[in-house]
Amino acid sequence: MASETATLGGGCFWCLEAAFQDVRGVTSVISGYAGGSVPNPNYRQVCAGTTGHAEVVQITFDNALIDYRTILEVFFTIHDPTTLNAQGADVGTQYRSVIYYHADAQRETAVELIAKLTQEQAFPRPIVTEVAPLPSVYPAEDYHQNYYRQNPSQGYCQAVISPKLTKLRQKHRELLVA
Q1: Residues 6+ apart with CB under 8 A from 21
Q2: DSSP β-bridge partners for residue 33
Q3: Which one of 18, 41, 150, 170 is most buried, counting C-beta atoms within 10 A?
Q4: Strand (E) or helix (H) holding 14
Q5: Backbone φ and ψ of 26, nearest 5°
Q6: What is the rounded CA–CA span in Å between residue 8 and residue 57?
Q7: Which residues have a catalytic role annotated?
Q8: What is the 8-class DSSP label of residue 41?
């Protein structure tokens, strides 16, 4: 297996984690924090918006089963890349749309896909997704890992995450684990 890692921020990490856990070829999804100035931040610090971190997921995938571009296509399906520092009611720099690339090839793929989506006018407003080199990534606390799977009936999960999963199933059914 040839594995690769993608690090993405698109609002609450619970949303991204839940979606990517259902994608065929994804072998691991870890929620965490990246892009800030405080080493080993905790959830309270990040939510206060003072550390500069984004909530992110680190996605490990088998690139023989799914490629990086397809990972990014899923990413652009399950969040709004046109809202600066916000996703729905989640507002703050910790909820920014960001692609942290691990190699130049990932950067090139991200820039090309954003240009294509922009040219196609795939969204009603300009894409504001940041593309930046991979900074240090810190895993989130244990209770954030597998959050949706452990709390599917929780209000936030029902109101925010479930509709994203429905959209994922409608647009990318062929990519999902049976």
Answers
A1: 29, 146, 148, 149
A2: 55, 138
A3: 18
A4: helix 13-20
A5: -80, 125
A6: 6
A7: 12
A8: -
DSSP code at position 102: S
Q: Which residues partner with 3 through β-bridges? A: 62
State the total domains in the chain.
1
CATH of the domain at 106: 3.30.1060.10
Which residues 6+ apart lie within 8 Å of 85 measured at CB?
A: 91, 92, 93, 95, 96
Is there a contact between 69 and 113 (Cβ–Cβ < 8 Å)?
A: yes
This model's pTM is above 0.85: yes
Burial of 143 (0-12, 13-18, 19+ CB in 10 A): exposed
Domain range spanning residue 63?
3-175
pLDDT over 80 at 178, yes or no: no
Tokens coding 59: 């996605």
Q: What distance in Å separates the CA atoms of residue 9 and residue 1, rounded to the nearest whole number?
A: 26
Instruction: Read off the pLDDT of residues 109-124 as tens digits, 9 standing for 90 and up.
Output: 999 999 999 999 999 9
pLDDT, one tens digit per residue, over 62-108 is: 999 999 999 999 999 999 999 999 999 999 999 999 999 999 999 99
Contact assessment for residue 99 and residue 129, using Cβ atoms and an 8 Å cutoff:
yes
For the record, the structure tokens of 141 come out as 């606390």
